[in-house]
Amino acid sequence: MAASLLSMQAAVTRTAVSATQTAAGATSSSASKVRLTAFSTVTSNFHLRTSMLPDTLPLRTTNVRPLSKKAAEEPRRNAGKVFASVNGTGSSPGLPIDLRGKRAFIAGVADDQGFGWAIAKALSAAGAEILLGTWVPALNIFETSLRRGKFDESRVLPNGGMLEIAKVYALDAVFDTPEDVPEDIKNNKRYAGASNWTVQEVAETVKADYGSIDILVHSLANGPEVTKPLLETSRKGYLAAISASTYSYVSLLKYFAPILNHGGASLSLTYLASERIIPGYGGGMSSAKAALESDTRVLAFEAGRKHGIRVNTISAGPLRSRAAKAIGFIDDMINYSTANAPLQQELKADDVGNTAAFLCSPLASAITGTVIYVDNGLHAMGLAVDSPCVAKATSAPSEKSSIPA
């Protein structure tokens, strides 16, 4: 193709020269006009012909700028900038995550510290409209904090704008329908004044308010006996963990799927304890996360075939959030991860938020039924390299050492 283009350029030159020679006998003024006319005619024809060439023709590569040293050294800091071109000023150097015109419902946001908040920010930065579902007893303090500006600093987006929340809904995902709510909860003062907060009612209210959504995020879990070893966990505590942390996702997708637009995305959050032993993460929560990952695969098939919806889950590393502090040893978990993960850096909530934005975008249109690990690679490790027992084995080999074949 490039050779053909060079031939066309040569033809332009020969034709222009011929036209000039033909006009040589004319007066100086006339010759000038003829040369101008001939050149304009030929070049117009040249541009007409070359305009039909494919846009991807590799004519020149001199305009491609190498990645700056700063960007190469700070990929995480630059990762959020991909959203800036969508919802603010500037242009992205790579593929933009464009969620303009999309609407997301994120269940389980009650403060500005957890993964749910980070996901809301990332989706908002990509252009999505944000709806939140907040646990009923936490709703009042959450809305008050929003209204008084206590979250303003953490609402700032990568482009300098602010996270805007279209509406906050009262939600208790442990109850599917009004008929499921026991009398003691109905009469509980922490639920006083709230209405339409079961999963079915919230889905119906969102439909009445907005018609449909494009993204559903499950960012909630609860294990009342999480600090107990599994052998000491009661049946009630075990089933409560499964109900709040796992079945709640099934319920959300069941009632929200009819208002999720075709091609939409659904996402949940899991943890490594689903497949590895994490002492101290008890009360049936490890079982709940294992069930959540299994359900993700089944729901991907069922919701994909019936509604055209993608279903994935993010296995996130330890984060110093308010919810994680309930476990009691979150600082130790973070220190362990930093010491043993392939990437020796503390996980940021935005790392999970950015991954969620990708999974909910058209860029991930063929990804479903998958567990995506966002934990600096800790899940891949089979040995604690900070252990004194293996310090010698994991140390860098000397130049004189040799490895037997």
Give the helix/strand layout:
Blueprint: H1 2-22, H2 28-50, H3 69-73, H4 75-79, H5 84-87, E1 103-107, H6 115-125, E2 129-135, H7 136-147, E3 165-171, H8 183-186, H9 199-210, E4 213-218, H10 235-256, E5 260-270, H11 285-307, E6 310-316, H12 330-340, H13 349-359, E7 371-374, H14 391-394
Parallel strand pairs: 1-2, 1-4, 2-3, 4-5, 5-6, 6-7
Pfam family, one: adh_short_C2
Keywords: Fatty acid biosynthesis, Fatty acid metabolism, Lipid biosynthesis, Lipid metabolism, Oxidoreductase
Family: Belongs to the short-chain dehydrogenases/reductases (SDR) family. FabI subfamily.
Protein architecture, described:
Pfam families: adh_short_C2. InterPro entries: Enoyl-ACP_Rdtase_NADH, NAD(P)-bd_dom_sf, SDR_fam. By secondary structure, the chain is an alpha/beta fold. Helices cover about 40% and strands about 10% of the residues. The chain is built from 14 helices and seven strands. The protein has helices at about 1-20, 30-50, 70-75, 75-80, 85, 115-125, 135-145, 185, 200-210, 235-255, 285-305, 330-340, 350-360, 390-395, and strands at about 105, 130-135, 165-170, 215-220, 260-270, 310-315, 370-375. A seven-stranded parallel beta sheet has the order 3-2-1-4-5-6-7, sandwiched between helices. The longest helix is centred in the first third of the chain and has 23 residues, at about 30-50. The protein is globular. The two termini are about 50 Å apart. The model is unreliable at about 1-75, about 75-90 and about 400-405 (pLDDT under 50).
The radius of gyration over CA amounts to 29 Å
Order of helices and strands: HHHHHEHEHEHHEHEHEHHEH
DSSP strand content: 5-15%
General shape: globular
- Helix % is 40-55%
Average pLDDT for all residues? 81
> Strand order across the biggest sheet?
3-2-1-4-5-6-7
Q: What class do helices, strands and sheet pairing give?
A: alpha/beta
**What is the overall number of helices?**
14
Low-confidence stretches: 1-73, 75-90, 398-403
The number of distinct β-strands equals 7
The description of the largest β-sheet is: 7 strands, parallel
Pathway: Lipid metabolism
InterPro entries: Enoyl-ACP_Rdtase_NADH (IPR014358), NAD(P)-bd_dom_sf (IPR036291), SDR_fam (IPR002347)
Family: Belongs to the short-chain dehydrogenases/reductases (SDR) family. FabI subfamily.
Keywords: Fatty acid biosynthesis, Fatty acid metabolism, Lipid biosynthesis, Lipid metabolism, Oxidoreductase
